[in-house]
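Quick one:
INPUT:
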């Protein structure tokens, strides 16, 4: 046996193959990098086109709205959202159209969609301030917000569902709310709209179930339900709503809007001491509010507690509340509703 001789050619061949492999890897990496950059550029270009189309439809919609062509404005506002779901101003435009046409449920859905998609810096929208505050009373300790584009798509499906509901296409509307729920399963406005669809289809048990779920999600929606004249067909609604509000307060005692509705319901049912107890518990978590003081003063009057009633009235007097604000169309009112 002879020892294997050192072969410089074979070593050079190995080194050459190694260099060639490295070179090919570098070429492939460069090609992939260029492809990735090209994809990103195409994505940005597509996004820019969608934004431009959304803005174009929004401007047309505003022009139609200003000239009184509400149906054409509605179609263009929807087109703006289909082109760019982040075009949150279109939700506000749809809400204004529906409010002018007297469709309170559709207007509410769009006001909520606008509030959910508007940038955080502008969240305290005047018309839906109570909705926003009721929502964040429950979720102030944890961030349950989705990525905004994700939420915007859910709001687009909500707008599509509203449009179908207004055309009387109820099954299709429920199908669209299901698509939105796949993105935002705990979004109470979808339950509120589903309740309305079932109401229109004379499915009262399903309507009640959906509405109670909506009330559990946001006490503002509970107030909107109690603001409506539903008792003739749903006599169990006040009692069921009282149970839901107690559950909400057990988990979120700082939810002052739930406290206001629960105190008002107790008052309406003649449970005056229970109403004052609910108010006392609420005041441990919040500043005095005129709504609580109105209910408290009325309850003390029924209980012949004149001194306590005078203190509650003094709180209202010091607050100098303009009660005409309580009758604005876009806000629920104790005086139109539970009181």
């Amino acid at each position: 046996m002879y020892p294997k001789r050192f072969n410089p050619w074979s070593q050079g061949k190995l080194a050459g193959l190694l260099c060639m492999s490295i070179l090919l890897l570098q070429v492939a990496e460069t090609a992939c990098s260029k492809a990735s950059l090209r994809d990103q550029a195409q994505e940005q270009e597509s996004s820019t086109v969608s934004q431009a189309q959304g803005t174009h439809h929004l401007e047309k919609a505003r022009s139609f709205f200003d000239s009184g062509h509400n149906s054409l404005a509605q179609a263009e506002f929807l087109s703006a959202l289909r082109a760019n779901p982040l075009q949150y101003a279109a939700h506000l435009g749809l809400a204004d159209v529906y409010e002018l046409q007297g469709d309170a449920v559709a207007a509410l859905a769009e006001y909520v969609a606008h509030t959910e998609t508007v940038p955080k810096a502008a969240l305290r929208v005047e018309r839906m301030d109570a909705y926003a505050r009721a929502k964040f009373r429950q979720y102030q300790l944890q961030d349950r917000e989705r990525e905004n584009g994700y939420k915007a798509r859910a709001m687009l499906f909500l707008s599509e569902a509203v449009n179908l509901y207004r055309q009387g296409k109820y099954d299709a509307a429920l199908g669209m709310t299901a698509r939105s729920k796949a993105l935002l399963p705990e979004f109470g406005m979808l339950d509120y709209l589903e309740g309305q669809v079932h109401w229109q289809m004379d499915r009262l048990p399903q309507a009640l179930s959906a509405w109670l779920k909506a009330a559990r999600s946001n006490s503002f929606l509970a107030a909107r339900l109690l603001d409506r004249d539903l008792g003739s067909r749903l006599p169990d609604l006040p009692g069921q709503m009282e149970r839901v509000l107690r559950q909400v307060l057990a988990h979120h005692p700082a939810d002052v809007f739930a406290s206001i509705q629960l105190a008002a319901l107790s008052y309406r049912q003649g449970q005056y001491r229970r109403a004052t107890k609910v108010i006392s518990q609420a005041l441990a978590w919040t500043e005095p509010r005129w709504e609580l003081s109105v209910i408290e003063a009325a309850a003390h009057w029924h209980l012949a507690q004149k001194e306590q009633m005078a203190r509650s009235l003094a709180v209202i007097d010091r607050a100098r509340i303009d009660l005409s604000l309580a009758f604005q169309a876009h806000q629920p009112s104790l005086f139109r509703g539970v009181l």
